[in-house]
């Protein structure tokens, strides 16, 4: 009965149903080259740095990192070139890991005949390409699942990931981050008819889905161990790509999803049969992730972010893709103020 009710409630773009979403997800590992089809898909390591030395240096610097200040540990902005930026310019395009299934962030609008990716993160990637290379279209997009974001950066498959990626202390030991460009927090998504009220005791005996390698799963696991989450809450359902959780929810295979509130709000906007339950229970910041040691690229991206906030580019993108999303936290409507180490 639940599956039939959920299916009956689907309408509009998201209402194509679970099968349409699953079909879209089947493309998640495909190389997307809307602007640079002629380029070799095997991008070289843009930095040419030894990860061992940089990792050791970063671990030393990250000794005082906490959940409260992880977003304040990026390098100060600079327009100076360096080996990583030089390599990108010599290649002629920027390689960026993105999502293609997150409504409002990075997705393919079925009403767009060109099939180009659009969304808030996509706008930011185009802006970075424009400022670095003089052309917003000199960007090669790669669809990266949630659990492949860090491996894609460390292996050199992409120069950066712009994909709703939260800055955390653990991740700072594996990749470098820009200053934060968006504020959100973890939240619960469940069917409208569900008795679940939020991230609380009403999750007892419920099956909760999260993405592998996500901060949502980290919180679920830690909170279950320390008793914050009921012991009977089943958190065993994890998926490679966060949107897969919405499909599981639509099919009635899980009772709730825990993910970033900004993503949850976008998913609720697609599917009127689900809604946000309770408020956000963490504070998290998205950053552009890059390879350890690519300091010149990090500083350049921070310079671009500074200008993006000041010239109204950030606000214009937010208004276009996210402002009308029901349930979007009001704090998210203003870009975070950066603090550099």
**Structural category:** alpha/beta
What is Rg?
A: 20 Å
| Nearest-integer average pLDDT | 85
Number of helices: 12
User: What level of helicity do the residues show?
Assistant: 25-40%
Beta-strand share of residues: 15-25%
Distance between the termini: 54 Å
Spatial order of strands in the largest sheet: 5-1-6-15-7
Elements, N to C (H/E)? HHHHEEEEHEHEHEEEEHEHEHEEEHH
Q: Main sheet, how many strands, which sense, barrel? A: 5 strands, mixed
Q: Total strand count, please? A: 15
Write down the overall geometry.
globular
The residue ranges in which pLDDT falls below 50 over 5 or more consecutive positions are: 1-62
Question: Could you outline the blueprint of secondary structure elements for this entry?
Answer:
Layout (H helix, E strand, L loop, with lengths): L1 H8 L8 H8 L25 H11 L21 H9 L2 E5 L2 E2 L3 E3 L8 E2 L1 H14 L5 E5 L5 H6 L5 E2 L7 H4 L3 E2 L4 E3 L1 E6 L15 E5 L3 H12 L7 E6 L3 H8 L5 E5 H10 L3 E4 L6 E3 L2 E2 L4 H16 L2 H9 L20
Parallel strand pairs: 1-5, 1-6, 10-11, 10-12
Antiparallel strand pairs: 2-3, 3-4, 6-15, 7-15, 8-14, 9-12, 9-13
Helix pairs in contact: 2-9, 5-11
């Amino acid at each position: 009965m639940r599956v039939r009710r959920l299916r009956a409630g689907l309408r509009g773009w998201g209402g194509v149903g679970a099968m349409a979403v699953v079909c879209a997800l089947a493309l998640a590992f495909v190389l997307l080259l809307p602007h640079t089809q002629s380029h070799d898909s095997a991008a070289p390591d843009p930095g040419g740095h030894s990860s061992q030395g940089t990792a050791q240096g970063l671990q030393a610097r990250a000794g005082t990192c906490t959940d409260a200040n992880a977003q304040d540990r990026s390098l100060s902005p600079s327009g100076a070139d360096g080996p990583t930026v030089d390599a990108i310019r010599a290649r002629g395009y920027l390689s960026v890991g993105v999502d293609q299934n997150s409504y409002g962030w990075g997705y393919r609008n079925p009403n767009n005949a060109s099939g180009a990716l659009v969304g808030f993160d996509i706008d930011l990637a185009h802006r970075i390409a424009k400022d670095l290379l003089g052309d917003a279209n000199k960007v090669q997009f790669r669809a990266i699942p949630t659990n492949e974001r860090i491996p894609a950066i460390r292996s050199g498959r992409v120069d950066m990931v712009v994909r709703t990626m939260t800055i955390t202390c653990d991740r700072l030991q594996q990749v470098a981050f820009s200053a934060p460009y968006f504020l959100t927090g973890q939240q619960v998504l469940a069917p409208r008819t569900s008795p679940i009220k939020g991230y609380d005791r009403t999750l007892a005996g419920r099956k909760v889905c999260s993405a592998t390698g996500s901060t949502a799963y980290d919180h679920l696991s830690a909170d279950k161990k320390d008793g914050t989450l009921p012991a009977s809450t089943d958190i065993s359902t994890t998926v490679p790509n966060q949107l897969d959780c919405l499909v599981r929810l639509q099919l009635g295979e899980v009772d709730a999803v825990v993910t970033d509130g900004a993503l949850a709000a976008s998913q609720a906007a697609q599917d009127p049969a689900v809604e946000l339950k309770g408020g956000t229970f963490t504070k998290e910041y998205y950053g552009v992730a890059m390879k350890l040691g690519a300091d010149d690229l990090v500083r350049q991206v921070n310079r671009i972010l500074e200008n993006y906030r000041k010239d109204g580019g950030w606000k214009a993108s937010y208004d276009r893709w996210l402002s009308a999303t029901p349930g979007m936290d009001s704090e998210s409507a203003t870009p975070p103020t950066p603090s550099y180490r």
